[in-house]
Amino acid sequence: MTGYNGTVALVVQAPPQPDDPGGRGEDFGKAAPVGLLLLILFFVAVAFLARSMNKHLRKVPATFDKPAEPASEDKQDS
Predict the structure, then answer these.
(1) How remote is the C-alpha of 12 from its chain's centroid?
(2) For 4, which DSSP code?
(3) Structure confidence by residue, pLDDT tens digits, 24-78
(4) Are 29 and 35 in contact (CB under 8 A)?
(5) Spatial distance between the Cα atoms of 9 and 66, rounded to a whole number of angstroms
(6) Could you give the residue ranges of the DSSP H alpha helices within the chain?
(7) Taking CA 44 as the corner, what is the angle to CA 41 and CA 49, rounded to the nearest 5 degrees?
(8) Distance between CA atoms of 44 and 56, rounded to whole angstroms?
(9) Considering the entire predicted model, what is its pTM?
(10) What is the structure's pLDDT at 28?
(11) Would you give the DSSP letter of residue 22?
């Protein structure tokens, strides 16, 4: 018989102590103002990038086809 025949992993963790505030210690919530500032800075950067991209895209021609050359009379002298 080959393969995994009943591999079991058990994880044992001690129960939380009564004085444990459940992850809401002294530093809980202090990253929120920094995260908000960073998020606002990212939105401002994206707005400037989109504005710059629009300026550059307005300069792009509608088509990249070469203009048609008019038939010259010199080529028809045969």
Answers:
(1) 39
(2) -
(3) 777 777 778 889 999 999 999 999 999 999 999 999 988 888 888 877 766 555 5
(4) no
(5) 69
(6) 31-58
(7) 125
(8) 19
(9) 0.48
(10) 74
(11) S
